[in-house]
C-alpha cells in the first residue's frame, strides 16, 4: 500500500463511536502491514501486533468503523497479498457488568477462584463502584493498606492504590501491578482484585491456591505477599465509567481540553508517560508510535504526563521507592511484552540509548541498524527469564496459548507505562531500577469477554501473577 493512499484514506476516514467492528488484516509478512499501521485513525488495540497464523501468514487485529472497512475492502480488492475481513466467528453474549455492590459497601471481602471448587465462576464483571468497594473490603477484612493518590481525575474522581504484605514501611514494597488504563479492556481490574483476595484468603486459612492445573503452596503464597505488593486496580476510572455505561469500546480517558465531542475526547494514557513522549522529535518520521491528533485512539496528550491519571501512576514510584518489578494489565491478545517498546533491543552499545540526542529522528523502525535501544545484557536476561515463567504458568492452567515477546514487536510505541517504568533508572535521579511488563491477556481480538472467557482470564492471569512474582523473587527484589 502506498503511503499517499494511506493519507487519502486518513483524510476521508471518520470513526463512528459505538460502531467499531472487529476486523483482521491478513498478509504474507508483517512488513505488509507497515503502511496501514501508520494510519493513526485506525484502531489496532493496545498496540499493533502481527501474529503468525497456522497457514504461514500473518494476522493483524483492528477495530474499524463501517466506512473505514468499506474503503479498505475496496482498496485491497485488487491486491492478492493483503486482505481485510470482518471477524465472522459467532460469539456468545459478553459477560454482564455487575449491578449493585456485591461487597456490601466494603464489608464483604472479594472471593477469587483460587480457593473455590473447579468450575466455580464469577457471574459478572466488577462495576466501577464495586472496585472501590472491593478495596475498602480488603482493608476492613484483611487490613490491606490504602493510599489516596495526589491528583483527581479529569471528572473529579479520587484514585486509590492498595498495598499489602510487607507492613507499613513503603520501602519494603517491590512488586507493582496496575490495570484498567484502557477502559474497554474488561476484566483487567477483576483479574487483579481477585488475585489479591486469593492471596489474603489463603494466607489467613493457611492453605494454597489452585488455578486449573496450576497449584501453589501456602509457603509460596506467603513468599509472594512478603515481597510487598502495590496494586492499582483502575488507572482510568473516568474511561471505565463511560465504557461501562455505553458499551462503545472506549479506550482513552475523558479529558475534554483537546476535543469536546465524540472521538476527539480523551488522551491515550498509555502514550502519555514521560518516555520519548515527544515522538515527532525522537522517532523516525516513518513511524507512528503515538498520535498528535485528539481524535486518534493513540492521542498522546498535551505534554508528557499531562494527565492526572498518569501523574498518579508515576507518584506510586515516589511513594514506594523500592519497587523493582511492574506489570501493566491489558487485553486482548494473549501475550506478555518485555522491554523495550521503542525499537529493537541491543546489549552492546550503551551510548545508543533513548537519552542520546544524536539518535533523534532515527528511532522506531525495526530490523534496521540506524538505531536499536540499549538494554544491559543482565537486565535482558532477567526480564526474559521472568517472562518465560509467567507465560508457562498461564499456558499450564488450561492450555490456552500465550507468548512472551519484546514489546516493540514489529511497530514501536512511545509514552507507554512499561517503557517508562524501566527508563526511570536512567532518567530520574536516584530512581530504583524497575523491570516493566505489559500483559495482554486473552482472547485475541475481544475486549468484551464472554462469561466463560472472563473466568478463564481470571484463572490464567492469576497463575501468571503467581509465577511472575515467584520468578521475580528468585531473580531478586533488591
Ligand atoms: Zn490496552
UniProtKB/TrEMBL annotation:
Gene Ontology MF terms: metallocarboxypeptidase activity; zinc ion binding
Alphabetical list of Gene3D superfamilies matching this protein: Zn peptidases (3.40.630.10)
Domain Peptidase M14: 124-472
Cofactor: Zn(2+)
InterPro entries listed in its UniProt record: Peptidase_M14
One biological process term in Gene Ontology: proteolysis
Pfam families listed in its UniProt record: Peptidase_M14
Sequence similarity: Belongs to the peptidase M14 family.
Protein name: Zinc carboxypeptidase
Species this protein is from: Karstenula rhodostoma CBS 690.94
Lineage: Eukaryota, Fungi, Dikarya, Ascomycota, Pezizomycotina
